[in-house]
Amino acid sequence: MDEGKALLLGAELFRSVASEERPVWIGGILESVLAATQLDFMGFGQRMVTICREESAWGTAESLFLELRRGSLRSESERAPVECAMVDLLEVAAKVVFNASGARPGFDPHGIAAQSR
Asked: Is the pLDDT of residue 114 over 60?
C-alpha cells in the first residue's frame, strides 16, 4: 500500500471514531506502541497516556504538546527515525485529546475540521 492510500484510510478510520471517544482510542494506541517499543521519548508517552485516561485532564494536552515540541525540535537531527515517528504520534495524540476537551479555539484547524466531519 502506498503512503497516500494509507493516509486516506487512516483519516477514514479516525473519522469513524466519535470525537468524545478519540482520546481514549488514541491513548490505547499510544499505550500499545509504548509497550511494544519500550520507547518513551523523554517520558512524554506515559504522560500522554495518563492525560488520555482522565477527561478532566484533556485540556492540558496543549501544554504537553508545546513542551514536547520545544524538546523535540532541539534534538530532531540527533534522533533515529523510530524516535521521530514516536514524537509525531505523541504530537497527534496531544492535538486529538485537546480538541476533544471542547476548549476553544481548537488546537489547530486541521483537528477541528477532522472532528466536524
From this structure: no
Rounded Cα distance, 18 and 33, in Å: 22
92 CB neighbour count, 10 Å cutoff: 16
DSSP-assigned letters across all residues of the chain: --HHHHHHHHHHHHHHS-GGGHHHHHHHHHHHHHHHH---GGGHHHHHHHHHH-GGGGGGHHHHHHHHHHHHHHHGGGS-HHHHHHHHHHHHHHHHHHHHTT-SS-S-HHHHHHHH-
**pLDDT tens digit sequence for 15-55:** 999 989 999 999 999 999 999 999 898 899 999 999 999 99
Of 75, 57, 59, 68, nearest in space to 92 by CA? 68
Mean pLDDT taken over the chain? 85
Q: Give the angle 32-92-56 at the CA atoms, nearest 5°.
A: 80
Cell numbers representing residue 32 in the block: 500499545
